[in-house]
């Protein structure tokens, strides 16, 4: 439903299909870059808060030594205040994905908006298209590297085809 509402200005406009007014290009850039980035940021914050709350539930195992009760409380307080390795890894991954999407795809749409006001050579648009394609390739490689279940499934499928 939201996709239909977002595309309404393009469907209901008058004039040639290949010619867009400047407000349409700004609307396109906002609907493709700004709004999804905002929604992605909200979802990533929610995921991070969920992961952080789950990692806080893990308790440090008590030691047999009697004077470690205070040390355990100090460790728990330090653990609650600092980010764990898992949380840092999650943040790095989220930031990397966000930068690749915005850096890869955002510049192409920004060039379309700027192209309404300034002359931009064709080679710049072609370089932006190559950067977009490299961003997609990088995100796909990242998906295979970070998703162990998907990687295992694909390797099993490949081994099954080779064995036949």
UniProtKB/TrEMBL annotation:
It comes from the Eukaryota. The keyword Transmembrane helix applies. The chain crosses the membrane at residues 20-51, 95-117, 123-145. Keywords: Membrane, Transmembrane, Transmembrane helix. This is G protein-coupled receptor.
